[in-house]
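Recap for those who missed Tuesday's class. We walked through two folding examples back to back. For each one, the amino acid string is listed first and its predicted structure tokens come directly after. Nothing is annotated here on purpose, so try labeling regions yourself before you check the end of the notes.
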Amino acid sequence: MTDDQLLRYSRHILLNEIGVDGQERISQGRVLVVGLGGLGSPVALYLASAGVGHMTLVDHDTVDLTNLQRQVAHTMAHLGRSKVLSAQAAIHAINPHVEVSPLPIKADAELLERLVPGADLVLDCSDNFATRHAINAACVAHGKPLVSGAAIRFDGQISVYDPRDTSSPCYACVFPPDASVGETRCATMGVFAPLVGIIGTMQAAEALKLLSGAGQSLAGRLLMLDGRHMAFTEVRVPRDPKCPVCEGRP
């Protein structure tokens, strides 16, 4: 590491659980972030500040005035601009050494099949079940850990789905793809602005732990937040042996 890097990341290096070796693993990490809205904003900013080596950003949307209530990576100056390009600018304003590949396109199965194999881990910051299941399927197929978050109204949730761990469920074990789930969107249901910051920051924390080897991940646990009372509930989530996505996985 250079003197500049040792100084920039000194507060991580001072942590026994991270140290120089852990910080170097972070700096060599390659992450895929799907969704650069309320969750993806803090994810991108904290991973940048921590010095993640390469980030691939995927989002087909553009910055709208209604986004600015909660999507802190974007500013008035970037209204109408692609969210991935706006986020790239915010990332480089914090840390110009982070390599960013911005992809202003929709994350479908074909794209994920190309991108997931090259990532060390994937962060799902999307806002719909179809995309979440497509991301999960790609992560299971290629054995990549997935950090998944969601937030609506005052309610948030986060977990890690790690196919490298034989006891860890995948997203489909917990939320079956054939289940009848009504989509809820911020445009119609609303979302408490700091809630996405809390969940997104926790996603960044789980990603940095996975990259550095620090602590224990949320794999096998679903953490839910009631923002009205600021109360966390943790639920153990086992792997489903009959899951249509990860059944037969070693």
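Example two. Treat it independently of the first, because the proteins are unrelated.
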Amino acid sequence: MKKFFRVTLWVGVIVFVGVIIRISPYGYLFKGIKNTYLQGELSAHYTDWKGFETREIKSGSANPAQEKISNVKLSQELLAMLEETESGSYLVYKDNKLVSENYFQEHEKSSITNSFSMAKTITTLLLQRAIQDGYIKSWDEKVINWLPWLQGDFANELTLRHLSTMTAGLDWRENYFAPLGITARAYYSEDVEGVMRSVIVESKPGSKWEYQSGATQLLGLILMKALQTPPNGLKVFQQISDYASEKLWMPLGMENDAQWSLDHKDGRELTFCCLNASSRDFGKLGLLVLNNGKLNGENIIDSSFLSLASQPWKFINYGHSFWVSPATEIPFYYFQGLKGQYIVIIPSKNMVIVRTGNGVKRKDKEYVFTCLRKYVSEGIRLFGN
């Protein structure tokens, strides 16, 4: 009887604690635990999008990648690095043709994986398109004009450009392994706007570079509001995913529908992290950028903006949501995600390299990781001529 009482008491305590956590500001931990520890992972992983509510980005009529697959095999050194970092795919495009396509760990060309922070670059591209279409005036518009609830001593000075260049000065400490941190809250919360309303502008925008996922989520909230309440005559888009479909996925002839993770069912896109797509379609985004934003003569993204975006701004390795290689290397710039998701643009070689996976090898605080250097240098050596 006593044993039964003790078991019942412990069950009651566990249920009580669970209810308290659920109704507290830390209720998002349930979703986080379900999508990480219960999946055998210590943090977010590149197939975890299946544990989120998502919204479809329709691709329309597919235009398969132009292929001219080379008979050159990947080197043992490159294969070892790809295997060591739990890669899912490694693709190389040369002169707008797919010349090498490799998949690992049961992934294939239709497999959908999380972009993680490559979504930051995609969000910036969508916002640039919204400027071109007239939904937003310019990158120098004040954020508070769109989000009047923004708080902090410097809230009136923050612009969209500060958000894209990671010079926003937000009270945001980027950390991917702290369950109680702001990054985890934004990732797993069922109210991402509510999370962002708690973030203040604590230092003067433009004064320093600091990588902050919250900056891109603010861009996403602005983009959503601009699309939902456009100037007279412009088409209303209720969802960012619909705009991404019409302005990117359909014109580029993407081969698969993509999925954008949401904070909750029918909710808001997580624009700082979580556009889930196939490797070939990530490659088409890289080709768009390589070709100065043009496809078949159509100006999809303004070339002058891409030229600016791919140059360092306040930090030598970062522009407008693009990462930039050190000057000592063959110049390249790239989209980058948490677990080593890369879309690398190498203009001098007319090449794009795509890598997806669940691991990254780095040394200290290097911003161009050991593995990325290998993906790029070996890709150029094998396929760059």
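Answers for example two:
The radius of gyration is 21 Å.
The chain has two domains: 2-35, 48-383.
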